């Protein structure tokens, strides 16, 4: 990693043996247990873990922020000689924004939609730095320029929605840094952004934070990203730190089985590291007299059922596992379990095309006057039967629109889409039932596609009623149960409502619903991007497995090249609606020829090329 | 992340026809709605039947009835009468009152001023009382105190206006004797010569809408207060009152503005009740009296005016919502 430029000792923030719980009517749930982390000026500490591991609670606790019902059970948060966990709200308001800055998770809502950018900036600069209006404006414009917002003076008068997601998050970053804080807490600051945008924002975060000598905490579920941008890493599971150390060392040779599993779940493009989900779901609360990860661990023994201390292995390395002495450091690159990565021998060209897209264009009229917007521009592609085609590109590249036009949800403005040689009607409604059955789609967000008032069974019964009248009412329950087994959903979930399922389970239901129609072609629109890494990995494993088992043709849209490599035999790279490059996925990622493909690849965080990534790729 | 959110800066559209400017579209909506209102109003009074016998009394001769019908064109087909009335309205002639035999306008005009003042007063009362209470309770109040406020608003909402009006009259007018129970004083002298006569009716009318607006404001403020951008503001050191007034209110206000427009109907209903109750010489009282005495031309004119007021209030509320919501301001053109 790069060397620290400035060092300010006063900026150190530390949690010491922090235990936090939430009090509800049902009792106390402990979410953090004996957590000690220390932030140092000019360095970034990465905090990794799945949803519900307590990482966001830790991030907010470090700021002294208390959610209602939250209780500090033990330990303290020390900052500049005072205890933030005990500080009065008055004291906290003096440090919040002025000395401790926070960049929240949701890109779309980190800025107030009703206020101009100017108002956001001026408020803090006046309050915390005592600047007058003119000086505050000048400083804001300067910071907007530093995060590469075009026309900064002009941008100040705009509202958040007039910027793209990446720009909004860069503005939020500038806003946090403009008051010259000593500590910066980043809570999944780039989740939800495109790869290229993500890389851009991360580069800025790292450069600006280091330049200013800020002590930063970077919370994310993406270990590869953290290992790329952070100096140190802390891995969190069930409210405990399970491993801690220098980022590159932890990533290269993890000592805790959970760290190894988490690394194995991140799709990467550089190495041939296989992709594995972590079975089971994360434990929601702190474990008592047992290892929190035991129930999902491959290396579990009876010895695991005890309180396990965090063992210091070296000066800057610690892990929480009873079997540390017996188990050697894991090598995430060499896993012996069957790999999810596909690499099939038969060249795709020799296979019959089940779907053919010929010169398809989709044009949307803009409201009022102006040029029409070309979402898909003259795309031709053939999808061989029984294979998986990946469509990759940034947001706005037209990848989803292309998929939707195949599904018959968007009528192509020009060109034809054929299924087994016969042209398909423009919209699904005009297609015969048999064709609608043959082409099924799964969307990004299962929350939005599952009827919240239907049980799993009701949702899964629908495709049977619609497309498979041959199955009598009595047989449906059986068919649903069989499908649930196939997508690895426990049979007792059948009468649950979506709200009582986890995100991964909901997406499995959505996939099961599509598969119950017995489709020939399964269209997947970013089906894993709303999910945790470990869940994503298991869904991808499932899809690849099902595809092979059922000889299914899959068209998979994603913005994540790692995911692309995990599922797609062949891929096309879209930019501004047009194909920039196409070919077998492995070759495409190994030897990209189009500059745009190269740009996309450079944007994928890779700890082995951290310096390259942070300096801007090429 | 969905493509839509990513493309905030880039237009992503479905097929949209070329559209007229927002204000012109609103104006057309207004005219079409008013036209529909005239049909409904006239239709309803026509369905109510021939008023000749009711107005002339049971001892009127058949000749007198025929003469009355002829005088007021009641012997002509409904459609013709409607067109004649509509033509009159467009020329500014609201017709002739059955009761006074003078122009309807002369019957209505002295009552217009007091009623407009009364409605505005109760509307301002509603806003001034419910918005701050709703905002404050949504952002700050939790637990028992919050539940008590909800309980009180529910109790007030449960009472019909005439009961509330009577209770207020007994409390403030009789026991404490602070305010006149009878508002007839308004009809003498200038519009603002007897201000105390406005107070009881205005409070009565406002109490009909205040609980509803408080609850709506509270719910919206609470929802916005839990948004991440509010938490982010708190963690930037933003304090009250800036947090509530600048960060929460502008985002929580739009649904309340819409409701305030819609509540105009409730307000007008309250006007009829309160004016009758307190003998306030306004349009509401006139409406009640004219309906009872079957003075169709006056009822029609009043209904049309009230309808127009309601439509204008709603369109204005829509326009304000668009104006105060930056995101809408850009999409609605």
Structure description:
Chain A: Its main location: membrane. Chain A: It is a peripheral membrane protein. Chain A: Residues 13-263, 355-601 form the ABC transporter domain. The complex is a heterodimer of chains A (618) and B (333). With 618 residues, chain A is of the alpha/beta class. Among the domains of chain A are: 9-41 and 51-93 and 229-319, Rossmann fold; 348-446 and 521-615, P-loop containing nucleotide triphosphate hydrolases (Rossmann fold). Helix content of chain A is 33%, strand content 23%. Chain A is built from 21 helices and 22 strands. In chain A, the strands form four sheets. An eight-stranded mixed beta sheet of chain A has the order 6-7-8-3-9-10-12-11, sandwiched between helices. Chain A has a six-stranded mixed beta sheet with strand order 18-19-20-15-21-22, sandwiched between helices. In chain A, β19 (521-525), α17 (533-550) and β20 (553-558) form a beta-alpha-beta unit. The radius of gyration of chain A is 25 Å and the shape is globular. With 333 residues, chain B is mainly α. Chain B has a domain at 113-331: MetI-like (MetI-like fold, Orthogonal Bundle). Helices cover 74% and strands 0% of the residues of chain B. Chain B has helices spanning 3-6, 22-47, 52-56, 62-71, 78-91, 104-139, 143-158, 161-175, 196-225, 228-234, 242-278, 283-292, 296-324, 326-331. In chain B, α9 runs antiparallel to α11 (242-278). The two termini of chain B are 28 Å apart. Residues 1-17 of chain B have low confidence and may be disordered.
């Amino acid at each position: 990693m790069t060397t620290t430029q400035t060092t300010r000792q006063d900026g150190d923030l530390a949690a010491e043996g922090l235990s936090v719980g939430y009090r509800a009517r049902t009792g106390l749930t402990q979410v953090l247990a004996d957590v000690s982390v220390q932030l140092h000026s000019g360095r970034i500490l990465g905090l990794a873990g799945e949803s519900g591991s307590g990482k966001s609670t830790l991030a907010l606790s470090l700021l002294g922020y208390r959610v209602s019902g939250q209780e500090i059970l033990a330990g303290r948060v020390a900052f500049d000689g005072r205890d933030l966990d005990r500080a009065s709200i008055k004291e906290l308001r003096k440090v919040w924004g002025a000395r401790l800055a926070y960049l929240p998770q949701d890109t779309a809502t980190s800025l107030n939609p009703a206020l101009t950018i100017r108002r956001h900036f001026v408020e803090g600069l006046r309050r915390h730095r005592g600047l007058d209006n003119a000086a505050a404006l000048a400083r804001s414009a300067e910071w907007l320029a530093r995060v590469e917002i075009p026309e900064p003076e002009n941008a100040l008068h705009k509202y958040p929605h007039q910027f793209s997601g990446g720009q909004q998050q860069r503005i939020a970053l500038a806003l946090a840094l403009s008051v010259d804080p000593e500590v910066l807490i980043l809570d999944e600051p780039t989740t939800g952004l495109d790869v290229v945008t993500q890389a851009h924002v991360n580069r800025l975060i790292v450069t600006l934070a280091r330049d200013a000598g800020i002590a930063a905490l970077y919370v994310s579920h993406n270990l590869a990203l953290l290992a790329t941008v952070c100096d140190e890493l802390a891995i969190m599971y069930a409210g405990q730190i399970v491993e801690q150390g220098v980022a590159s060392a932890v990533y290269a040779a993890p000592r805790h089985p959970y760290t190894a599993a988490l690394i194995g779940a991140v799709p990467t493009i550089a190495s041939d590291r296989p992709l594995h989900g972590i079975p089971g779901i994360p434990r929601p609360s702190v474990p008592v007299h047992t290892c929190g990860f035991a129930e999902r661990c491959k290396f579990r023994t009876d010895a695991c059922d005890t309180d396990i201390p965090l063992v210091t292995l070296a000066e800057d390395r610690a892990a929480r596992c009873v079997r540390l002495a017996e188990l050697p450091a894991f090598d995430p690159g060499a896993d012996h379990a069957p790999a999810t990565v596909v690499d099939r021998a038969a060249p795709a060209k020799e296979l019959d095309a089940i779907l053919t897209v010929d010169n398809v264009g989709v044009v949307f009229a803009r409201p009022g006057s102006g040029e029409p917007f070309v979402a898909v521009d003259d795309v031709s592609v053939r999808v061989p039967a029984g294979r998986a085609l990946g469509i990759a590109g940034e947001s706005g590249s037209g990848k989803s629109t292309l998929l939707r036009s195949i599904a018959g949800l968007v009528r192509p403005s020009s060109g034809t889409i054929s299924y087994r040689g016969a042209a398909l009607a423009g919209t699904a409604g005009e297609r015969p039932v048999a064709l609608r059955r043959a082409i099924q789609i799964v969307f990004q967000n299962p929350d939005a596609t599952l009827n919240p008032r239907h049980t799993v069974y009701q949702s899964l019964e629908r495709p049977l009623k619609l497309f498979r009248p041959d199955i009598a009412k009595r047989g449906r329950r059986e068919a649903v149960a069989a499908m649930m087994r196939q997508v690895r959903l426990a049979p007792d979930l059948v009468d649950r409502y979506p709200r009582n399922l986890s995100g991964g389970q909901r997406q499995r239901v959505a996939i099961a619903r599509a598969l119950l129609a017995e489709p020939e072609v399964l269209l997947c629109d970013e089906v894993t991007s709303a999910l945790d890494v470990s869940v994503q990995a298991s869904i991808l494993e499932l899809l690849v497995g099902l595809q092979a088992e059922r000889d299914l043709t899959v068209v998979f849209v994603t913005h994540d090249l790692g995911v692309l490599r995990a599922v797609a035999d062949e891929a096309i790279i879209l930019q501004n609606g047009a194909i920039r490059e196409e070919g077998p996925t492995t070759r495409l990622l190994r030897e990209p020829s189009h500059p745009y493909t190269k740009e996309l690849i450079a944007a994928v965080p890779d700890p082995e090329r951290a310096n390259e990534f942070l300096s801007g790729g090429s | 992340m969905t493509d839509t959110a990513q493309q905030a800066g880039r237009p992503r559209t479905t097929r949209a026809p070329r559209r007229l400017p927002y204000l012109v579209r609103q104006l057309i909506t207004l005219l079409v709605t008013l036209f529909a209102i005239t049909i409904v109003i006239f239709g309803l009074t026509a369905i109510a039947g021939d008023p000749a016998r009711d107005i002339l009394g049971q001892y009127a001769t058949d000749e007198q009835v025929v003469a009355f019908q002829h005088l007021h064109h009641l012997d002509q087909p409904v459609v013709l009468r409607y067109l004649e009335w509509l033509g009159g309205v467009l020329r500014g002639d609201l017709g002739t009152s059955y009761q006074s035999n003078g122009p309807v306008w002369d019957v209505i005009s002295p009552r217009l001023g007091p009623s407009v003042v009364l409605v505005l007063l109760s509307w301002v009362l509603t806003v001034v009382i419910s918005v701050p209470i709703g905002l404050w309770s949504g952002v700050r109040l939790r637990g028992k105190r919050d539940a008590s406020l909800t309980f009180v608003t529910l109790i007030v909402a449960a009472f019909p206006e005439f009961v509330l009006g009577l209770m207020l009259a007994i409390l403030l007018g009789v026991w404490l004797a602070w305010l006149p129970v009878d508002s007839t004083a308004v009809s003498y002298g200038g519009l603002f010569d007897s201000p105390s006569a406005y107070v009881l009716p205005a409070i009565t009318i406002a109490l009909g809408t205040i609980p509803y607006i408080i609850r709506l404001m509270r719910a919206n403020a609470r929802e916005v207060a839990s948004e991440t951008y509010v938490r982010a503001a708190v963690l930037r050191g933003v304090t009250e009152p800036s947090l509530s007034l600048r960060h929460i209110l502008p985002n929580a206000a739009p649904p309340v503005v819409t409701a305030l427009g819609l509540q105009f109907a409730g307000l007008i209903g309250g006007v009829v009740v309160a004016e009758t109750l307190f003998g306030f010489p306004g349009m509401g009282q006139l409406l009640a009296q004219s309906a009872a005495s079957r003075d169709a031309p006056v009822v029609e004119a009043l209904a049309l005016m009230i309808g127009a007021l309601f439509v204008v209030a709603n369109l204005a509320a829509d326009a304000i919502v668009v104006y105060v919501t930056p995101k809408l301001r850009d999409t609605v053109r």
